[in-house]
Amino acid sequence: MWSVMFSLFGSLSILCWVMASFFAIKHKERSALFFQIFGMLIFAIFIAIVWIMLQRPPFKTMGETRIWYSFFLSVMGGVTYWRWKMGYLLTFTNLLAIVFVLLTIFKPELQSKVLMPALQSVWFIPHVVVYMFGYAVIGCGVVLGVLEFFRSTQMTRMTQIYTDLLVRIGTVALGVGLCLGALWAKKAWGQYWSWDVKEVAALVTWVIFLLYIHLQKFTRINRKVLLIILMIGFLALQFTWYGVKLLPDTKKSPHSFYDVAAFPRIFTTMVFFPSILSYFSTTKTEVA
């Protein structure tokens, strides 16, 4: 039943986001914002319904986290468009959100109502929510970074400012999520840090983004090098989210609750898809 309901709500949200992107490209701000917000509300209602139906927060499986990632992508796309009027960023974030919705429609991965005791901690919900928000914000920043990487220098001043701002916000969210995760671990397993492979990967990812921020602020390092560091951080983020499942040591990890088979599809979506779109968008802009 839930899959039919998600197909309905997901399709309506997709339609709204497509319309929002269309109007954003046509520079019709009010119409774009209307459809963007309407799509977000439809998706938020679905999340609330699923939460009630499962009688638990929908964070257990990879499919459930994809739902949250799609939601936060649409939120960040709408906020950045409202604030900065970047139609291309709204389009990219909506396209990513749509692909993740479609992945979830075709491979739901929604499991039973029962949560293992470790996931019943009060820290579990804010930990996952903050991380999904951070992933979405950094995703927006990386899209801008890819655009900046391929564009000429005279076109990157404002893009650079927005990229750095988004990365800073996302890095703060990752840091908060890391601390909440430690509190969750203390509550669930009796210790704040166990050097689990997922915990180490999350820490390394956070440090990479901290390195980007500090090099950008306190050194005169070449901007292209900084953007390469940003892209490396984004790849590390993908590995932290679902790539660690490929390692043999994660079989006993408490964080191992998603499908390895989904890795190639999600990796392609998260990395190559936005990069290709960014490149062609840049090429079209420079020719114009």
* Gyration radius, in Å: 19 Å
Helix share of residues?
A: over 70%
**Number of helices, where a helix is a run of at least 4 consecutive DSSP H or I residues:** 9
* Uncertain stretches of 5 or more adjacent residues: 257-269, 280-288
Quick check: average pLDDT? 82
Give the N-to-C terminal Cα separation: 49 Å
List the helices and strands and how they pair.
Blueprint: H1 2-25, H2 29-54, H3 62-84, H4 87-106, H5 124-150, H6 157-189, H7 197-218, H8 223-241, H9 263-287
Plain-language structure description:
- The model is unreliable at 257-269 and 280-288 (pLDDT under 50).
- The protein starts with a helix and ends with a helix.
- The protein is an all-alpha fold and 288 residues long.
- It is 76% helix and 0% strand.
- The protein folds into 2 domains: 1-115; 125-288, no CATH class.
Give a quick summary of the entry.
The protein has 288 residues and is mainly alpha-helical. Helix content is 76%, strand content 0%. The protein starts with a helix and ends with a helix.
